[in-house]
UniProtKB/TrEMBL annotation:
It comes from Lentzea fradiae. InterPro entries: DUF5753 (IPR043917). Residues 98-277 form the DUF5753 domain. This is DUF5753 domain-containing protein. Pfam families: DUF5753, HTH_31. It comes from the Bacteria.
């Protein structure tokens, strides 16, 4: 997914392109009248760029859009305009991470597989800070820890509200056993996992030690409630994230996720028992005051 392409701009772009085709207008004509390059206009129609308000009005005049088309275009444009502000605390992200945060904000559902750490969407602030300390060699020293935590918490709000993100997490048990931040932090973290797992739109499954090897990890699959906007895969690495959009490759990741969930991971009910047991173990290790 290109760094500036978003679901909302794509939705507007598809509508404008359909209006253009219905009117029999070619890109060359429209670009000339709008005083834009064809390349720029093409990007507006594929969801990478956004027409300005005045340009949108002229575009609708040029394609002789009817009242319904104008109403939809106006609504879609106002929605797409939010893209520039949807990512809270943008300075806390690098360019690739911002593109992911935008896509996550627009997604209807998310599936993640993590082998070593608790997924960011599920981290308590103390866990995030402890992980940040471990990452010190890779950090931008100009970004304060408080901003990173605030950015993470703003993303986690997608799991709540009237239209929450439908989420399914597969987490290796090693991530739950690792004392990131110490016993007290992990105890709080595991209690939080139990609370989140109770949400009706969230599924958490632990991959146990006896599960053996599994095909994917460090993987996020995002889906959208629009058949014209396909699922995408985001691979997070220390060198930076990477998007996978090829339909065949995305399908492989999707099938691998389901294989792990259905054949290798504990059921959600078994997972809660594992989390509770590990939480109690960490609670016993918290030093007495």
């Amino acid at each position: 997914m290109p760094s500036d392409k978003t679901y909302r701009k794509s939705k507007l772009g598809r509508l404008l392109d359909q209006l253009r085709r219905d009117a029999g207008r070619d890109l060359e004509f429209l670009a000339r009248e709008l005083r834009k390059t064809e390349a720029h206009l093409s990007k507006c129609l594929n969801g990478t760029n956004l027409l300005g308000w005045a340009d949108l009005g002229l575009f609708l005049d040029l394609v002789e859009a009817d009242e319904d088309g104008r109403r939809k275009a106006t609504e879609f444009w106002e929605d797409a305009k939010q893209d520039s502000t949807r990512v809270q605390h943008p300075a806390a992200y690098n360019r690739v991470a911002r593109s992911y945060a935008r896509a996550e904000a627009d997604a209807a559902w998310i599936r993640q597989v993590e082998a070593a750490l608790i997924p960011g969407m599920l981290q308590v602030p103390e866990y995030t800070l402890a992980r940040r300390e471990a990452d010190h060699l890779f950090l931008n020293p100009k970004i304060p820890a408080s901003r990173v935590v605030a950015a993470r918490q703003s993303r986690q709000m997608r799991l709540h509200g009237d239209d929450p993100l439908r989420a399914h997490f597969l987490i290796d048990v090693a991530a739950l056993q690792r004392a990131v931040g110490g016993p007290a932090v992990m105890y709080a973290q595991l209690l939080h996992l139990q609370a989140v797992a109770a949400l009706p739109h969230v599924t958490i499954q632990v991959i146990g030690e006896d599960a053996g090897a599994y095909a994917i990890y460090g993987v996020t699959i995002l889906g959208f409630d629009d058949e014209d906007f396909p699922d995408v895969v985001y691979l997070e690495t220390r060198a930076g994230g990477k998007w996978v959009e090829d339909e065949v490759d995305v399908d492989k990741f999707r099938k691998s996720f389901h294989e792990i969930a259905d054949e290798q991971a504990f059921t959600p009910e078994e997972t809660l028992e594992v989390i509770r047991e590990l939480a109690e173990n960490f609670k016993k290790r918290i030093p007495a005051r």
